[in-house]
Amino acid sequence: MPPILEAAARPTLLLVGHGMVGQRFLEALVERGVADSHQVVVLCEEPRAAYDRVHLTSYFEGTSADELSLTPADFMERHGIELHLGEPGQSIDRAAKTVTTPAGRTFAYDILVLATGSYPFVPPVPGKDAEGCFVYRTIEDLEAIETYAKDAARGAVVGGGLLGLEAAGALKGLGLSTQIVEFAPRLMPAQVDEGGGAALLRTIERMGLDVRTGAGTQEIVTDEAGRVTGMLLTDGTQLPTDLVVFSAGVRPRDQLARECGLEVGERGGIKVGEECRTSDDAVYAIGECAQTVDGKVYGLVAPGYAMAEAAADAIAGFPGSFTGADMSTKLKLLGVDVASFGDAHGATEGCLDVVYADSRSGTYKKLVVDPDGKLLGGVLVGDADAYGMLRPLTGSVPPVSPEQLVLPAGAGGPVKLGPDALPDEAIICSCHNVTKGQICACGTLPEVKQCTKAGTGCGSCVKTILQLLPQSGDKGLCGCFGHTRAELYEIVRVKRITSYARLLDEHGRDEARGSEGCEICKPTVGSIIASLAPAIGADGYVLAGEQAALQDTNDHFLANMQRNGSYSIVPRIPGGEITPEKLIVIGEVARDYGLYTKITGGQRIDLFGARVDQLPGIWARLVDAGFESGHAYGKALRTVKSCVGQTWCRYGVQDSVRMAIDLELRYRGLRAPHKLKSAVSGCARECAEAQSKDFGVIATASGWNLYVGGNGGMTPRHADLLAQDLSDTELIRLIDRFLMFYIRTADRLERTASWLERLEGGLEHLREVIVEDSLGLCDELESLMAAHVAGYSDEWAETLQDPERLARFVSFVNAPGTPDPTVQFVAERDQMKPDLQVLIPEGALTAR
Amino acid sequence: MNLQLKLDDAWFTVCPAGAVQPGRGVAALLPDGRHAALFIDRSGRAYAIDNRDPFTGASVLSRGLIGSAAGRAFVASPLLKQRFDLESGRCLDDEEVAVQAYEVRLGQQ
Asked: Using the beta-carbon criterion (under 8 Å), do B57 and A814 form an inter-chain contact?
């Protein structure tokens, strides 16, 4: 630690702008030791520190502002950097070397770095500032759009480029009927050629979006109150809309530089040299506000990062320069893969095209090669899986012919060209310029991200990185099985194994065969057998025969053990709908047995404090009144919550209660790798909180939207929208497939949220498998679910019918009439709670 | 055949062996008021330890799942999942903790 006096004497480096590039610049300073040798001060206009603007749209899909953050919580503190939020630079005095902010504060600098980014271009048309006009740049912009969209039915996006399509996807996701207006004759004119634009257009129109190309905005039409009601286009079209998002490109924010006399490019952008230094030696400019030596203003994050590195090098006295950047990108817009790399437009003299186009599937692939076969660039629309391979091959002659590289499977291709074929110097992460060789020197993805930063920019290279890394060691379920849960599921299914002992003896690790097994694999296998019971000919009753020995105590006693060894009981209340008569029965049973009652979060009633020997008596009365097991004890479907829906609520658009009951009755008793929760909301207000569930359903005017992979609890996750406007039948078919695919492939105790996060290819892969049936699995998944539904019976009703099974519900095997004396209760708030004093004998170890 | 455990110098009969499902346990009330947890593994071998889970104080070990590690049988507490060796009563997850183990047999008397 340098002494404080010395610290005060350090030169000051002032950074104006804390966006993605600004943060990357700070990291580069830290890496080069500049944060120690200089006092670093940052002015940030936005109310929050740098966040991932590239993935801004995911904010609408449930990613929180915190998750988007690119600034580790203690980053500034750890490196002694002073960050001022909500305080932009307003003017620069280059002679005095100071920057003044709107709050009137003045910051001195020895070195000034401008990373002010860009602003959205809004065409100067009448009405552009009306209420209902937005831009798409910051989290605050998105929040404003989200709020306004609540009272809107239609939205229009001006601009059909990269950001415009992002914005259109977001509006559609908010439930608006969405229109795109693009001035150029095709979508994404900067990235794709005419053929690619056409493929993109067809796919996007098929999604129900209205696209108008070759049309400009002439006027924004408003009502008397000044709110947007429509647009007038240059081709004369009147386009009714409630909301307009301008997303027609960005312009460099160079105002600060202009006003203090720094040199600025003709079409904007602060002029910088190779070291990103401006016309003033003490001032640098990086990112979207800068015009680089090649005369360009780059609007992508990767070149911005490269500039941040170059400027940090120059400041630290290292060699480094920025002379221009590769404009390659791979994006997923509205679910469509779009990639372009190298000379995508075929501008090189004498170059040739190899094109594959399939308008049925919306696939378009073009490679640009020179006469010797050297790959120069390309455009991929609809299927950009090859991007990770093709981009690093740019500039070389690929090991196979270009035709084979564009043809789909079964049509002369595919050539399985894995990343193994790449040379060590091939760039895998173009955001951070990381080569294959650097990645292969690491062991795991987290190591790669930490050591090389690869995969932390746009993220498009993560798949390739994973393919390059060695497979991690033992993935076995436990000490008894070297297989994963998913592999065991397949073994049980294919070999129709209904006995745990047989599975262990035939498929366990050598040292575990013939042994007792363990507390991890027993319930896991018990659950797999229960999930597959109808298909493999096992008894569907989880306490049948040997299966009873596999169940955790909760499943074994069909109740939830509490801290003093007593149990709680949750009768099923489908959809949370219950008659007064049934409520009275629950009340009477609780009163007669002296149980503590509490309403659960899943719209049910939990009865606590039953001794094991009381469970059959309690359940006899509940079953008699028409209740059945709520499976609160099982890794199984818990509840399907609902709001009252259209029947009562003035906002409701569908009968959410009926749907919740249908779903709960359909999937009750279904054993899964972990518990399953669900909810159905009757309108977009989402009172049932369906987006925090494993599968959530939200009513729309024309059907149901299905969300999957949501979670509350310790790591909350908003569910992803899987499909929209489904009919009842379509909805149930899709949930059938979803649940069975999850049960088939998830790990032990892996909720759908983390399963979906882990699933290779993520939501898109899930959609391919269960919506498009890419693996041909759907018939089987549906028939497995049909067998479950047909084979369901209430576990408690079944248990009560069998005296032998009831015999195990005793406190003591040798004194069946004697209750466990350690299960005692004391009064609290008019009910009772466990008496923990009786559990701690004198002088004994203190209970935790 | 009865499941018996040794108290002082006498064998105390708990229940017929058939009352215990292999792989699971039962609780027994002993003459002095203590509770024992008795188990039979898949090879038919019997074990008995104190039923009280020392981590929570609840009388629940008989309701845990049994397993084996390195050839030795254990039970995992159904509450917080700590494992106890069924022959010695030692906790496998906290070496300072142990429960009493009983001698046990399948006998005729």
From this structure: no
Q: Is A683 annotated as a binding residue?
A: yes
**Hey, is the C-beta of B100 within 8 angstroms of any chain A C-beta?**
no
Work out whether strand A720-726 and strand A703-708 pair parallel, antiparallel, or are unpaired.
Answer: antiparallel
pLDDT given at position A452: 83
CATH class, A636-805 region: alpha beta
Nearest to B79 among A480, A563, A811 (CB): A563
Is B54 in contact with A549 (Cβ distance < 8 A)? no
C-beta atoms of A839 and B56 within 8 A: yes
> Which of B34, B59, B74, B104 should one mutate to test binding to chain A, selecting the residue with the greatest count of A CBs within 10 A?
B59
Distance in angstroms (rounded) separating the CA atoms of residues A65 and A113: 26
Reference A39, options A5, A86, A90; nearest CA is A5
| Cβ-based contacts of A823 with chain B (< 8 Å) | 59
Q: Closest Cα partner for A661 from A621, A625, A607, A697?
A: A697
- Helix A485-495 and helix A500-507, axial crossing angle in degrees, nearest 10: 110
- Cβ of B21 and A549 within 8 Å? yes
Structure tokens at B30: 């002993």
pTM score of the predicted model: 0.54
Q: Are A309 and A318 in contact (CB under 8 A)?
A: no
- Residue A649, annotated ligand binder? yes
Region A193-222: mean pLDDT is 88
Q: Right CATH number for A4-119+252-316 from 3.40.50.150, 3.50.50.60, 3.40.50.2300, 3.30.70.270?
A: 3.50.50.60
Positive/negative CA dihedral, A48, A52, A56, A60: negative
A133 is in an annotated binding site: no
Whether B18 has its CB under 8 Å from any CB of chain A: the answer is no
DSSP E strands in A45-116: the ranges are 82-85, 91-93, 98-100, 106-108, 111-114
pLDDT at A271 over 90: yes
Lowest mean pLDDT among A555-564, A641-650, A714-723: A714-723
pLDDT of A813 higher than 50: yes
Domain spanning A327-417: CATH superfamily: FAD/NAD-linked reductase, C-terminal dimerisation domain (3.30.390.30)
Q: Kindly report the number of other CB atoms within 10 A of residue A751's CB atom.
A: 23
Contact A565 B27 (CB under 8 A): no
Please check whether residue A27 is in contact with residue A127, taking contact to mean a CB–CB distance below 8 angstroms: no
Calpha distance A142→A138 (Å, rounded)? 7
For the CA atoms of chain B, what is the radius of gyration?
13
- Measured between beta carbons, the chain B residues lying within 8 angstroms of A479 are 69
Q: Do B76 and A519 touch (CB under 8 A)?
A: yes
CATH number of the A122-248 domain? 3.50.50.60
Query: What pLDDT is recorded for position A589?
Result: 96
Can you read off the two tokens belonging to residue A681?
A: 């909301």
Contact A235, A69 (CB under 8 A): no
Q: Tell me, what's the pLDDT at A330?
A: 77
Query: Which CATH superfamily does the domain covering B2-107 fall into?
Result: Rieske [2Fe-2S] iron-sulphur domain (2.102.10.10)
Nearest 5°: the CA angle B4, B9, B10 is: 40
Residue of B nearest to A565 (CA): B58
Q: Which of B55, B59, B97 lies at the smallest CB-CB distance from A820?
A: B59
Interface contact B36, partner A, CB < 8 A = no
